[in-house]
Specification:
The protein is α/β, with parallel strands linked by helices. It folds into three domains: 51 residues; 148 residues, FAD/NAD(P)-binding domain, CATH 3.50.50.60; 130 residues, FAD/NAD(P)-binding domain (3-Layer(bba) Sandwich). It has a seven-stranded mixed beta sheet, with helices on one face. Strands 12-19-13-14-15 form a five-stranded parallel beta sheet, covered by helices on one side. Strand 8 and strand 9 form a beta hairpin. The two termini are 93 Å apart.
Length: 428
Amino acid sequence: MNILKTTTHSARFLQKRGISALKSRVVSNKPTARLYSTSHEAPKEGSNVPWAIGSLLVFGPILFKLTSPPPSKKKAAIEQHVEQENKTEEPVEVAVPVVKKVQKPYVLVGAGTASFAAAQAIKEKDPQANVIIIGEESYSPYMRPPLSKELWFSEDPNVAETLVFKDWSGSERNTVYQDISKYEVIKDASGSDLETEKIKLLLNKSVSKLNVEDHTVTLNDGSVIYYNKVLLATGGTPKKLPSQTEDSNVTTFRNIKDFQKLDKIAKDGAHIAVVGGGFLGSELAVALAHRSGKENLKVTQIFPEEGNMANVFPGYLTKWTTSRVRKIGVDVKDKSTVKSVSTDKETGKAVIHLGNDETLSVDHVIVAIGIEPRIDLAKEAGLEIDEKRSGVVVNAELEARTDVYAAGDMVSFHDVQLGRRRIEHHDQ
C-alpha cells in the first residue's frame, strides 16, 4: 500500500512537471529539455507515459511473483527443518504418584473424660488430625460419676454389663461415651503411623516415660511414639487406709471393674461398710441404701468429720445432709476413724477396728476417701508440680510446657476469678 501511494504521487508529480514545461515553452518560445522521451519531438498532450511507469512500479512485483518458478524441493525441505527447530518444545507432564505422609499424632495419655473431650475438640477443628488415646483399662473412654450414682438406680438386672442408665431428666445414656467400633483400635506403637480418619485407641497400655525435648512417649512395653502435642490426663489413684493391705474383702472404688465387683456383692442381705464422707463415699452410701429395699442390704458409713460433706458444705448444710442420709437407712458413724481392717479366718468377713476401740464385722469394705493425683510421669519429665495442691502446674490454657498440656483430676490450673486450684469433679 505504501508503494502504491508513492508511485501514484510520483506519477502525478511528473505529469505536472511536464505540463508546466510545455506551458513555459509556448510562452517563451525557447527550447526546453524533453521529459522522459528519447525522440527529438516534444511529447504530445495527453500522453500515457507517466501512468505506464506508475503501473509498472505497482504491478511489476506482483507479476514477478506470479510468474516465478516454485522453489526447489531441497530448499523447501531446509526451510521446513529450520522452522521445526525454531519451535519451542512443550514439556511432557508425567504422572507422579502422591504419597500421603501421616502427621505426627496428638498423644492423649489417659482414657477418661478429659482425653475424650480433647480428642473430640481436636477432630472438630482438624478432621484429618492423627489422635491417639492411651488407656490402661480394657474399656474405651467412659464417665465415672454414674458408677456411684445413676447405675445403682437402674431396674435392669444386667446393668453391670450394659452400663446403660437413665439420667435425672429421664434420657437413656451409656456410661461409655461411644462404642469401641467408632475408634481405630491399635495394638502397639506401630499403629501411630496408621492412616485413618477415626480416633485411635491403644488399650491396656501405660506410658512409662515422657521426653519433652525429643517429643516422645515411651510405653510400658518399651516402644516409643513421637508426638506432635501431648496431653497428660492420668487422673488419680484411690487413696488407701493407713494400714490397708491387699484383701479380697476390701475395695478402693474407682473404675468399671470396681462397680461390677460391688454389684455382685450387694445382694441377699449383705452388710457393706463405706469408709469416706466426701462426694464418692456419700454417693455410694445413698446408692446402696436405695438398693437395700430390694436386696435387704445393711449399709454403714464411717468418716472422721462431723457430718457428710463437711469438707465441702457449711456446717448447717452438713447437718441437714447427714440427717437425710440416716433417714434413708444408712447407719452413719461420724467422728470415727478406721485404725485397721482384718479378715476373720472363721467367718471370712472383714473386721473394722475403729479408733474408739469399737469393732465392726461386715461382708465387704468400700474405701472411698479421695484420690492421689498421678503426677509421677510429669514429675520425672521435669514439669512443675504444685506441692500445696499436688497437681501439675499449668496456665489458664492448661499448658505445662511447649506442646505439653495437662487436664483433669491431676492438674493445678489457674482460674481467672478464683486463682489457682485443683478439682476432682466434672459435670456430666
